Amino acid sequence: MKKVLIADDDLHIRTLLRTVLTQEGYRVIEARDGDEAARFMAETPVDLAVLDVMMPGQNGLDLCTQIRSLYDIPVILLTAREQLSDKEAGYAHGTDDYMTKPFEPKELLFRMNALFRRYSLASSDKIRLNRLTIDRKNHEVTDGESTLLLPLKEFELLAQLAQYPGRLFERGELIRLVWGADYEGDERTVDVHIKRLRQRFADYDEDFTIRTVRGIGYKLEVPRR
């Protein structure tokens, strides 16, 4: 279930969007101002943010800039201002889309779906594990604040498990997928690399865990948040 952050100081707008999005199968997180929205996003990952421009505390433009620097998610700005210069400011701060009030909720849904399709294509090389993002193209793992560079085989092993959360991989299967069919070492190599991954990510056990299935192999599990 995708999580959508709605940040707007207007209770009626939040109620309307919560009703519409919940009916469409989204989980909605509501924030009354920009500061509250920033705190919520630091606590739990979201898949898309809908932000009012004029909010108490941190306004929508500044929050959009902050989101763009920390997270790789779509952002839609909502505002009563419809001047071209206002839209220009929104896009300059990094928004993906811009809607003026009043708006049709169905149109917002259309635009959200379009953004999800766009981001799905652009992020096909990225795997999300709650706070962590595995970037297979650049061979790096980031938590939004720092980047972790892993030895190649550790990274490839982690990415292989994370690509299929909950799936059990036999040791021999992991050898073939990560080290190649012509690898001449034994399956204990997998155990050594799993141990190292667990040590490296010991502080991220709330984001994912690697489970051992005795006598068979391993699977990566992602706790629901």
Architecture blueprint of SSEs:
Layout: E1 3-7, H1 11-23, E2 27-31, H2 34-43, E3 48-52, H3 60-70, E4 75-79, H4 84-92, E5 97-100, H5 105-122, E6 126-129, E7 132-135, E8 140-142, E9 147-148, H6 152-163, E10 169-170, H7 171-179, H8 188-200, E11 209-213, E12 217-221
Parallel strand pairs: 1-2, 1-3, 3-4, 4-5
Antiparallel strand pairs: 6-7, 7-8, 8-9, 10-12, 11-12
Describe what this molecule looks like in 3D.
This protein folds into two domains: 3-122, 3-Layer(aba) Sandwich (Rossmann fold); 126-221, Winged helix-like DNA-binding domain superfamily/Winged helix DNA-binding domain (Arc Repressor Mutant, subunit A, Orthogonal Bundle). The protein has a five-stranded parallel sheet with strand order 2-1-3-4-5, sandwiched between helices. The protein has helices at residues 11-23, 34-43, 60-70, 84-92, 105-122, 152-163, 171-179, 188-200, and strands at 3-7, 27-31, 48-52, 75-79, 97-100, 126-129, 132-135, 140-142, 147-148, 169-170, 209-213, 217-221. The longest helix has 18 residues, at 105-122. Helices cover 42% and strands 22% of the residues. The mean pLDDT is 89. It has 225 residues and is an alpha/beta fold. The chain is elongated, with a radius of gyration of 21 Å. The chain is built from eight helices and twelve strands.
